[in-house]
């Protein structure tokens, strides 16, 4: 398969998790009305999805190390389609919660196993470019998902949103069945033994550099779960826009992610991973500080309130591929396990920020900005916490 085609498929797979989150956000009020529950109960459909997503990320990569990348992705997509269909016909909020758990449990397989496929197939420089291109395509999801969800919600109700997700899962399963190659040959697979797997996870969890790097990736991502978890309140109550105006928040983020990913793919040809990460950090730090200053001096309004989100996303996409490749490069013979644990750490923080922190600060643009800046500073601090950290990571990534 040509690199371009593989990139498109892997990017589409990485979208599944985001589509499962963002597409149904505009339908929250209708779900509240249908089941006669409060907003907190409906909000838990997001929390349980993200938590299941995070927990199961621990297993997707490891299972793919034993049974192959392609098989894990195909099974996960079929289950996602079935769970989406169940959510579409849910007769109670309890049933909807269970279907969301099942959706979340398999939605991350494409993203985790996809990262392992990239590292299976390409050397570090080409892997960086492919990862950046995947992020460019993936970035479309947060922009189009709320728009699609809002349109479907307006035309035919919230259940049609889950009908759309059913179609996404089924279509991707068919596409992967015919066009996704297996990249992990039999002779490189590990036996599926619980004791060996547990030992492997313990070894990885005790690897100081790996954990620090993974935590850094999670914290520099803080703006995404923070503003996604606050989306409805931020758009409607803070910016005083209507429910059809989610694009004001998501499009700047998406354009920034796409633009930064393209720039990152070009920088990979000329600069070291450490230099690329520093460039991304600088842009994000400037954006976060500008966000705090703006919201201290002025009342939040478009477009000024969302411009820092654009610049933050731009910087994030520049540094994220290099950070991810370097992190997984620490485990060249167990990339699936490494991708699982790194993804788990990121999604646990996503769940905490979107489900617990965002509701506490979502009514204030300044409080959102301050949390964003705090998380970013933690992430940058972690990246440089160990002397010689960046240089060592670059060397290990190149050896991978």
Structure keywords:
disordered C terminus, globular, Growth Hormone, Chain: A, 400 residues
How would you summarize what this structure contains?
Helix content is about 80%, strand content about 0%. The chain is mainly α. Helix 1 runs antiparallel to helix 9.
Describe the structure.
Helix 4 (69-88) packs antiparallel against helix 5 (93-107) and helix 7 runs antiparallel to helix 14. With 400 residues, this protein is mainly α. It is built from 19 helices and no strands.
CATH superfamily: MFS general substrate transporter like domains
What is the CATH architecture descriptor? Answer: Up-down Bundle
Order of helices and strands: HHHHHHHHHHHHHHHHHHH
- The coarse silhouette is globular
Structural class: mainly alpha
Q: How many helices in DSSP terms? A: 19
- Beta fraction of the residues? under 5%
Rg, please? 20 Å
CATH class: Mainly Alpha
| Count of discrete structural domains | 1
Helix content: over 70%
Largest sheet: none
What is the mean predicted local confidence, pLDDT?
A: 85
**CATH topology, anyone?**
Growth Hormone, Chain: A
Count the strands?
0
Low-confidence spans: pLDDT under 50, at least 5 residues? Answer: 391-400
Distance between the termini: 23 Å
């Amino acid at each position: 398969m040509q690199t371009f085609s593989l990139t498109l498929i892997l990017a589409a797979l990485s979208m599944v998790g985001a589509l499962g989150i963002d597409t149904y956000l505009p339908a929250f009020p209708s779900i509240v009305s249908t089941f006669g529950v409060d907003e907190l109960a409906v909000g838990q459909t997001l929390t349980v999805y993200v938590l299941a997503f995070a927990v199961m990320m621990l297993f997707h990569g490891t299972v793919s190390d034993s049974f192959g990348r392609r098989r894990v992705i195909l099974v996960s997509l079929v289950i996602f389609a079935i769970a989406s269909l169940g959510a579409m016909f849910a007769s109670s909020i309890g049933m909807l919660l269970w279907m969301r758990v099942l959706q979340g449990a398999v939605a991350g397989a494409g993203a985790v196993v996809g990262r392992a496929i990239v590292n299976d197939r390409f050397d570090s420089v080409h892997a960086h470019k492919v990862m950046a291109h995947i992020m460019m395509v993936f970035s479309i999801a947060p922009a189009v998902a709320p728009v699609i969800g809002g349109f479907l919600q307006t035309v035919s109700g919230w259940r049609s949103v889950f009908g759309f997700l059913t179609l996404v899962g089924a279509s991707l399963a068919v596409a992967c069945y015919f066009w996704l190659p297996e990249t992990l040959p039999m002779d490189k697979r590990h036996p599926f033994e619980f004791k060996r797997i547990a030992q492997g996870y313990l070894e990885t969890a005790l690897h100081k550099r790996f954990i620090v790097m993974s935590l850094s990736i999670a914290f520099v991502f803080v703006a995404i779960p923070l503003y996604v978890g606050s989306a409805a309140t931020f758009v409607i109550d803070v910016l005083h826009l209507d429910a059809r105006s989610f694009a004001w928040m998501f499009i700047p983020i998406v354009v920034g992610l796409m633009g930064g990913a393209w720039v990152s793919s070009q920088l990979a040809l000329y600069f070291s991973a450490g230099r690329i990460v520093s460039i991304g950090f600088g842009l994000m730090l400037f954006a976060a500080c500008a966000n705090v200053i703006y919201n201290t001096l002025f009342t939040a309004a478009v477009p000024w309130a969302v411009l820092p989100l654009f610049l933050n996303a731009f910087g994030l996409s520049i540094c994220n591929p290099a950070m991810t490749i370097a992190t997984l490069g620490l485990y060249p013979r167990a990339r699936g396990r490494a991708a699982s644990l790194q993804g788990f750490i990121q999604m646990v923080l996503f769940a905490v920020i979107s489900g617990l922190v965002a509701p506490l600060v979502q009514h204030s643009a300044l409080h959102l900005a301050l949390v964003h800046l705090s998380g970013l500073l933690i992430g940058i601090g972690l990246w440089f916490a160990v002397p010689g950290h960046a240089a060592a990571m670059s060397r290990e990534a190149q050896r991978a």
